Amino acid sequence: MFEQTFLMIKPDGVKKKIIGDILSRIEQKELDIIAMKMFQITRELAEIHYEEHRGKEFYEDLIKFIISGPVIGIILEGEDAVKIIRNLAGKTNPKEAEYGTIRGDYAFDITKNIVHTSDSRISAQREISNFFKKTEILNNIK
Ligand code: CMP
């Protein structure tokens, strides 16, 4: 299915200087980057993004970490974009993520797990509208 998804390089991915490697892995897939920016997430926006995790024991650490430094937000578009990008990222828990995936290759910690990716088309649309204005997204790039 032709769809959009959202990938965020978290503060640990930016600090480790692996932005280029993550982008080149993304570019090897048949997906188009239709928006990309570096920004600092406010606490307010972090709470909106991670609303579903509010109240869990790891929630506060997750919020503190995601606002601890700049992130890169990327919107991708193409056939089965959500699944392709989730497979590229690997399992959420780096201990379970396979080698060859971004988390399997770079992450050691479930909070500092290098990237966030949307888990469905609906989440993708919600996350895209949380982080991007309509004018920041390319249309009809083909
Ligand atoms: P992310 O894809 O950003 O979505 C929610 C985040 O919560 C997830 O990556 C992890 O960083 C974090 N997370 C999920 N489950 C746990 C857990 N059991 N303990 C700590 N952090 C978690």
Explain what you see.
- The chain is an alpha+beta fold.
- The chain has a single domain, classed as 2-Layer Sandwich (Alpha-Beta Plaits), CATH 3.30.70.
- Helix content is 38%, strand content 20%.
- It contains seven helices and four strands.
- The protein has helices at 11-15, 19-27, 43-49, 59-66, 81-89, 102-106, 121-131, and strands at residues 2-9, 32-39, 71-79, 115-117.
- It has a four-stranded antiparallel beta sheet with strand order 2-3-1-4, sandwiched between helices.
- The longest helix is centred in the last third of the chain and has 11 residues, at 121-131.
- The two termini are 17 Å apart.
- The structure holds adenosine-3',5'-cyclic-monophosphate.
- The site of adenosine-3',5'-cyclic-monophosphate has 8 residues, from loops.
- Adenosine-3',5'-cyclic-monophosphate is lined by residues 53, 58, 62, 92, 110-111, 113, 116.
Radius of gyration: 14 Å
Number of domains: 1
Distance between the termini: 17 Å
Compute the number of helices. Answer: 7
CATH architecture call? 2-Layer Sandwich
Q: Which fold name is given in CATH as the topology?
A: Alpha-Beta Plaits
Instruction: Give the beta-strand count.
Output: 4
The SSE order reads: EHHEHHEHHEH
Bound molecules: adenosine-3',5'-cyclic-monophosphate
Strand proportion, as a percent range, falls in 15-25%
Approximately how much helix is present in the residues?
25-40%
Low-confidence parts lasting 5 or more residues at pLDDT below 50?
none
What would you call the quaternary organization? Answer: single chain
What structural class should be given to the helix and strand makeup? alpha+beta
Averaged pLDDT: 97
Strands of the biggest beta sheet: in what spatial order? 2-3-1-4
